[in-house]
Amino acid sequence: MNDESLPPYQPLAPAVFHILIALAGKELHGYGVMQEILRITQGRYQIGLATLYRSIKHMAELGLIQEADERPDPALDDERRRYYSLTSLGRRLAQAEALRYAQLVEAAHIRNLLGNEPQGGLA
Amino acid sequence: MTPYNTLLAKISLFCLQIFIRLYPRSFRRTYGQEMVQVFRTSYTATYQQSGVWGVVRLWGTTAWDMLVGAVVERGMSMHKMVIFRIIAVGIWGSSVLWALSSLVIAVGPAPQFSNLQPYQLMSMLYYLSFLAGLVVLQLRQSRCLDWITWGLFGLVIFSMGGWLWLFVFPFVSVSGKTFMMQWIAWALGPSLVLWGIACLFRRTVSPWVAINLTLLGICTLARSLAMIFMSYSLNPPPEVLIPVGIFGLCQPLFFFLLGFAIWSPKAPSPEHGHTFAFQEINERR
User: Fold this and answer.
1) B33 to A31: CB separation less than 8 angstroms, yes or no
2) Nearest CA to CA, how far is B34 from chain A (Å)?
3) B168 with B224: CB under 8 angstroms?
4) Which residue of A36, A38, A53, A80 is the best one to mutate when testing the B interface, meaning the one whose CB has the most B CBs within 10 A?
5) Using CA atoms, how far apart are residues B48 and B54, in angstroms rounded to an integer?
6) Contact between A53 and B70 using a beta-carbon 8 Å cutoff
């Protein structure tokens, strides 16, 4: 699936792709994005505070994310927090990037880089 | 007591606010408050989970991230014209200093001044700012420059590299230095002359910038001629020495004028004049 209508932003920076994936599930505030990234990467990727907000700024400028209008639970939440959500462009870009990664994984799989049994060799 | 009421937390927040101050104002206004909130939440969670060492680890990742981010954001927010104008001011300053020092050597009682380190440092700064100026000029005009001017610009950079080499490695023998200086001057002079003429005929930069480049090249050649006379203690006839001297002395002036070309707010563009050569080059492609 090659979406030719997408702007040429690929390959995405790791921080941007992680944020897109984190926001693909639900609207989140900054700290929520950090925690979600930690959760989905099982603690292997910790995004820095500055990297997070610089990426958010950049992504908002490119129209990949937007500030959410409604708060998920206004009663329980700090009203100064801003929630972010994916735009349709952001979602399509995340899909395209995920597909690109999937193709890479497939290529790695074919070349026995994923811990499969070696094909041939000196055994 | 909440964890962020401790002294450590207060120091941490203070440091974070200093880091945030390093960011451009627009960034601070939009995200500064939110960054503080996120940091407070992270700090609380880390402190409760891992204590003081956790906070130290948190700062280990945060400090570098904040610092690098601030530098990048500052660079991105800085208007290009500000950078151009800083370089133009550098060029003006160095050309004035160069002219004054040439005057000291020419009429002053201390000809050995040219062997002093401050003088050599100054001449290095002169040529470094010259190089920076040429790079900026080339980049500003790059939309309407073709491969000939880019190629000539490569020659200029190549010969300027010789200057760097000359000053970075001061322990080269005197004859080696003389050879390199000659090589550089003879490479730089014709390059600038050809670059200027190419720009002039193709109308890819404003004519006075092209003429200025050409004259700078002639001045550089004149200086190298003078250097030959000086290094071999020749007594040239006045009809050779006078034009050489005049052009040698004019170099800082043309250098000064180059500063204006870099300072000027508009680079020639397809929309603002000089369209003929640009269209022609595009059609040829």
Assistant:
1) no
2) 7
3) no
4) A53
5) 9
6) no
* Interface contact flag, A51 B73, Cβ < 8 Å: no
Name the closest residue on chain A to residue B32, using Cα atoms: A53
The DSSP call for residue A113 is -
Rounded CA-CA distance B137/B209 in Å is: 10
Q: Are B122 and B98 in contact (CB under 8 A)?
A: yes
Q: What pLDDT is recorded for position B276?
A: 37
| Model-level ipTM above the cut of 0.95 | no
Residue percentage of chain B with pLDDT more than 90: 14
CB atoms within 10 A of CB B64: 12
Q: What per-residue confidence (pLDDT) applies to B284? A: 40
> Tokens standing for B11?
């120091």
3-state secondary structure chain B: CCHHHCHHHHHHHHHHHHHHHCCCHHHHHHHHHHHHHHHHHHHHHHHHHHHHHHHHHHHHHHHHHHHHHHHHHHHHHCCHHHHHHHHHHHHHHHHHHHHHHHHHHHHCCCHHHHHCHHHHHHHHHHHHHHHHHHHHHHHHHHHHCCHHHHHHHHHHHHHHHHHHHHHHCCCCCHHHHHHHHHHHHHHHHHHHHHHHHHHHHHCCCCHHHHHHHHHHHHHHHHHHHHHHHHHCCCCCCHHHHHHHHHHHHHHHHHHHHHHHHHHCCCCCECCECCHHHHHHHHHHC
